[in-house]
Amino acid sequence: MRQSASLRRMIRETHLRVDDLIMPLFVRPGRDLKNEIPSMPGNFQMSVDWLVEEAKEIAALGIPAIILFGIPETKDNLGSEGYADNGIVQQAVRAIKGADLDLVVITDVCLCEYTDHGHCGALREHPLSGALDVDNDATLQLLARMAVSHVQAGADMVAPSDMMDGRVAAIRQALDESGHTHIPIMAYSAKYASGFYGPFRDAAESPPQFGDRTTYQMDPSNSDEALREVSLDIEEGADVVMVKPALPYLDIIWRVKQEFGYPVAAYNVSGEFAMVKAAAANGWLDEKRIALEALTSIKRAGADLILTYWAKDAARWLAGD
Ligand code: PBG
């Protein structure tokens, strides 16, 4: 059955398609800025003018969606630029929507890029230890405000990545109350406290300034807990559930898809991308081959959608270039 390429093509079970891909993009204030992110070759922090050009190219490649991350001008304790009407993501969404492209514009909803302490929510002193810690419940209203302001700017879908408990319900309620009942939520449901986010934190300038994210992101050792997280998010109104990272967590993608049959997204994160780029730069791996194999494996595990920094390359490769 493997004798010829045609025969292999006929019995192939998994098909990676351009329709599966979501391209992450980073936007920052300024004009005519396109700064390459050293640990993520081919990816840039862009000002809005360049971002619109990039969005046009992505739409022309047939990629259906982008997800936007903002690097604000200033950061503060509560991440207020994240939910400012004229925040950087809000500006970017308006500009892209103004270009009238056939592109689903998703926004990442999280405070870590906007807080001066780099955590994904507001802080408080822990009631027992007295140490500074994220205040889950106080964060919910900030995230809800952020989601509503992204949608008011024109976002088609919001993607909370903060891992606070109850945030999907809070965002759903705020969207409904502000008249945005039709806007779907893609929840980062099983998001692990992973070392694979390293390059992203450089790109988004968002590393935590003290401690780490283990009090709200998941322990890599756990799998049943991922199902509980996904189940809660679905009950709260999530329309797409995400597993992140992707490659080290293919078993989680599989379990989530089998258990819930919901649309599943997988985030092929910055570290997964950077490892291959670094190896390829050394001539140790064939980038195209490895990237397509990895993306196909993520799909085979059960992902319907893949957020990946290879989206543009993959679109070209799949088209035969
Ligand atoms: C924000 C967020 C992160 C990523 C996506 N959204 C970083 C983090 O949680 O530290 C990581 C994406 C990547 O590594 O490509 N919370």
What structural keywords apply?
single chain; 321 residues; 10-stranded mixed beta sheet; binds ligand PBG
Task: Write up what this structure looks like.
- It is a single chain.
- With about 325 residues, the protein is of the alpha/beta class.
- It contains 11 helices and 12 strands.
- The strands form 2 sheets. Strands 1, 2, 3, 4, 5, 8, 9, 10, 11 and 12 form a 10-stranded mixed beta sheet that branches. The protein has a two-stranded antiparallel ribbon with strand order 6-7.
- The longest helix is centred in the middle third of the chain and has 18 residues, at about 135-155.
- The radius of gyration is 19 Å and the shape is globular.
- It binds ligand PBG.
- Ligand PBG binds near residues 108, 120, 161, 197 and 270.
Sketch the topology as an H/E string, one letter per element.
HEEEHEHEEEHEHEHHEHEHHEH
Shape: globular
Q: List each distinct ligand once.
A: ligand PBG
Mean pLDDT: 97
Total beta strand runs: 12
Summarize the amount of helix as a percent range: 25-40%
Structural class: alpha/beta
First-to-last CA distance: 27 Å
Determine the strand fraction and express it as a percent band.
Answer: 15-25%
